[in-house]
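User: My collaborator sent over this chain with a note saying "see what the structure looks like." That's all I know about it. Can you take a look?
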Amino acid sequence: MSINCQYELMRYPFFLSDLTRSVPVEGELRLADNLPPLAKINWGSFEIEAPALAVYDDLLVITGKVYPYIIYLTSPSTNPMDSSGEDGESLEQDMERLECGARWTNEAGVDFEERLTIPGLRPGMMINVDLSPSNATFEEAGEGQIHFFGQLEAKVHALDNQEVQVVNDVTAQPPFKVSVGKETVKLEEILDIRKETVLLQTPLVLSNLKPGIARLLTYQIKPAGVNYEVGRDKIFVKGFLEVAMVYVGCDDDGRSTEVFAHEWNRSSGTAVPFEMVIAADTLDNDLTVLPRIVLHNSKLELKTPREMRYRADIECVAIISRTVQKEVVTDAESGSDQVIDVLKNLVNFEESLGEKSSVISLETSIALPGGENPDRLLLWEGTPRELSLEAVEDKVLVDGSMDLRLIYAADSADGSRVQIACWDRSSKTGIPLAGVIEFPGVQPGTLLRAQAQVDSVNLELTGDRTVQVNAEVTVRVMARAPRALMALRDCAAVEPVDPSTRPSMLFYLVQPGDSLWKIARQYQTTVDTLARVNQISNPDRLSIGQKLVIPKHAV
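Assistant: Without extra context I'll predict from the sequence alone. Here is the result:
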């Protein structure tokens, strides 16, 4: 008489609560010798290199570099690129205060290190850190010297795979009969975090409708339209880099003219495509991939007045997972007089409810801050911030804001033609972003994660100081429901014991490595019987040397 158990590992992710922290970074910058002297800093910000992570028990150390950039005004009579002194027009330009741009890249960047205490963190966990600029200030500290202070926002995601062995089926040999109870669970298995880097180099040529470039003031590069396809043991990640720049134009003689902007984007069909292949080490095509694109060593260089060259190392950090459905045995009962001993464990896990993506539209009108009336809008960038998600019945409510940065042209009293306006959370002026995502199956209390990407931002000057904003933001929501399950870890048939073969009082001293389950198997009784006879409230806790009474019968 016997019963047989079939076992499998139940794998599920354990997520630490996301931690958001403001990280300061500070350093001294020196203006390059080939740039005109600085008289006034109009505006600046910084880019962030992908950080290095060191993981210890309850501690995460983040180290990296940031790369500041500024737009500044020169003093009059300090523009060697335009002044020839041969005619009145050149001399007039020579007396102007002209805009220039400066960037600090590679070794000229500013180092930072941040140590974050995260209870529950340990080596071996999968760690992902999102860094974004929050605030930047620049102060002149002497001739050609600039003191930089920035704040960046670090959002830390930490997860680990949990494993527990459970029973997925029980069979019995006749004449033994067993009745089995099962429950179906849907689990997300995190398979790996993979990284792949490709080098991209490409020329960028100005449209014939735009004048040539005298000076590059600033530029921005952003990934867009990132998607993936799963093939046989490979993941193909594709997307585009959209490039936008603000520059001072030049005439046919190479002299500076007005300030212009130019873009290479998807809407015009000029965005820069990229593709990379990530090995998946699995033949399972039903994978979910959460890709994040990071740019390293990004550099835009002027080759001729009409041609640029862009170079970057494109790194894709991809979290690879799959959703599996399993049947877990929760109980096994004898269909006759035979006794079955069962070993159960309470398993707390988060059941996957899948994911949904939706586009949230934003339409609003904003007013430019005080100052000169704008002439032209040049360049803008939107970034989603502080998204909060709330689950209601079959819906997810999204609430947050979008930071907006706008560079526009307007003549000012100090001679500057480039103006900057920002609407962000640091100044409590971020643009509200809200929407509803239909998500059948979610209920209040559902655990939610989100990945947001700005697909498009369009700005239009509709009045002297009024700007119409239209944006579309894709929000991808992953949902999990907390669940507790008494899963069967083992079961065994209890062979009848002849009471006459046992003394009236049988004792056992607990040895190292013992458990009630192990002792019950040795003496053909049940865990429940041993626990009740010995008044053990927690069967998982035994003390070495503890004396146990072994009953004659399994009750």
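A starting point for your reply to your collaborator: Confidence is low (pLDDT under 50) at residues 81-93.
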